[in-house]
Amino acid sequence: MKAEKTRRSPQPLLRLMPYVMRYRKMVAAAGVFLALAAATTLMLPLAVRRMVDHGFAAADGSFINSYFAMLLALAVLLAVSSAMRYYYVITIGERVVADLRTEVFQRVTALSASFFDVNQSGEIVSRLTADTTQIKSAFGSAASQALRNVILCLGAMAMMILTSPKLSLLVLGAIPLIVFPLVGFGRSVRRRARAAQDTLAATSAFASETISANRTVHAFGAEQAASARYTSTVEAAYDAARVAIRSRAFLTGFAILMVFGSIVGVLWYGAQSVLNGTMTAGTLGQFVLYSVIAASSLGQLSEVWGELSQAGGAAERLSELLSEVPAIRDPQHPVSLPSPARGEVSFDKVGFIYPTRTNAAAIEQLSFTVAAGETVAVVGPSGAGKSTLLALLMRFYDPTSGAIRLDGVDLREARLAELRSRLAIVPQDVTIFAASIHDNIAFGQPNATREAVRQAAIAAQADEFISRLENGYDTMAGERGVSLSGGQRQRIAIARAILKDAPVLLLDEATSALDAESETLVQKALDGLMQNRTTIVIAHRLATILRADRILVMENGRIVEEGTHQQLVAKGGLYASLAKLQFEAGSQSFIAAQ
Ligand SMILES: Nc1ncnc2c1ncn2[C@@H]1O[C@H](COP(=O)(O)OP(=O)(O)OP(=O)(O)O)[C@@H](O)[C@H]1O
């Protein structure tokens, strides 16, 4: 997935052939019109010669008229076939890119947490938009131009040989003189273009990060610094682009000079032949036209080559994404979870090391069981591994050793969708999508009725504030829920979990202090939710801890103490000292001091 590895050549575009071949009929139509347009172009010089040699020589008006009529017919044919070629080729490009975007998005959303630990979301989004756009333009214009020019160039060269083998031999002799320096130049131009493109990729990653964190940027007064940093990366990209443009401009000039210089030379030689009568003027005209066609198509080919090479890089990056296999996926022979669900969770000597942090285990030798309907509070200092425990239970990662079971089935043996349908999570950091409040509560359950959503909101103590919003449940929550307060967002998340009605509830209590009223409301909502469900709660508030049937105290990825509040206080260990800290501070938040 690393950008540096990406080669720049059009070859990877071939990997997209299966996508193109889904639309065989359109491809065939494009091919027909492509060939027709090229053939028509190649016929024009032929007509010109006959007219020069016969039409003018015979001074026959009707002959000239019929020739012009034919030329007009050719022009119409050229116009129609070019328009159709454009239509089909561009449409195929759009279609392929639409398919690619959909598939890449589907793939990416299916990838596991470990993939997103390593890859920046900004970079992936840029692939989804920038890389696919590049491929679209490659298909849409560059590929059709390349094909057209290859056909034209080969056709014109064949016609040159047919028209005058002698002059063609001369041209052939000149080709190496032109091509070798051009190839050399072309390489250095491509190298510079690549440098420019890489600089640009870094720029967009920085922009997307800064824009999505705009509140943090403002809060720390970092606008100027961020702008300055962005400006400097944009300027660096501009400088790199200018270097590339300069060498490209030079290359263009050089190519034109060499090509047309040679044509002038050949023309001069041909003119001598016409003068001494070894060639007709029409033949020379025809030859010159063919060589102009050949030269200009060659010139255009070199132009589109660069574009195709860039698209090749984009295609390679996208096919890497497409071939990425989720680390967490369904087993080949899934075991059904027992029905009806009991909601019994067990960790059996579980060990876990984050793939991105291999030097230390986040969880070690973790064993505990939560009986059906039991409420267990997990407490412990920051970094103890509490959130990791929930992530493992949701199977965002697989344990490195040991096993986690739900109702007696190893999580790795169950179907992912079935497993996750039995777990409802209220995370600490609630995600609110840029959609209506209704859709936010019904997230993951698009078929939920309006009444079911309302009932869930009532149970989550959220109905009252939602009803007071301008459009009630149809109010759009701003992007990431910026228009809602912390307590409101939490109650939306609780309503989401209530609607899901799963047998196991996972709560990651917010550390941020809610105001007293919000806290009471959130607590009331949770009490309703926790009834008759297995609940594992990462607890920060004393009220929650006291409500739990049992408390697990974690430190450095292990369970160091276990029991009820009274038992643990009496024991005088880590829990007792954490509790003492809190009582002295008189705070409602148990571990807030950590
Ligand atoms: N995605 C990740 N990649 C690598 N290491 C991680 C990742 N997430 C957490 N860790 C590390 O794993 C350890 C346990 O983290 P975890 O988030 O589970 O702790 P926690 O007890 O929930 O802490 P807090 O109460 O502060 O949220 C920490 O050392 C943390 O740095």
Automatic annotation (TrEMBL):
The keyword Transmembrane helix applies. Residues 345-581 form the ABC transporter domain. It is found in: Cell membrane. InterPro entries: AAA+_ATPase (IPR003593), ABC1_TM_dom (IPR011527), ABC1_TM_sf (IPR036640), ABC_MsbA_ATP-bd (IPR011918), ABC_transporter-like_ATP-bd (IPR003439), ABC_transporter-like_CS (IPR017871), P-loop_NTPase (IPR027417), Type_1_exporter (IPR039421). The chain crosses the membrane at residues 67-88, 146-163, 169-186, 249-271. Its main location: membrane. Keywords: ATP-binding, Membrane, Nucleotide-binding, Transmembrane, Transmembrane helix. Residues 28-310 form the ABC transmembrane type-1 domain. It is a multi-pass membrane protein. Belongs to the ABC transporter superfamily. This is ABC transporter transmembrane domain-containing protein. It comes from Rhizobium lemnae. The lineage of its organism: Bacteria, Pseudomonadati, Pseudomonadota, Alphaproteobacteria, Hyphomicrobiales.
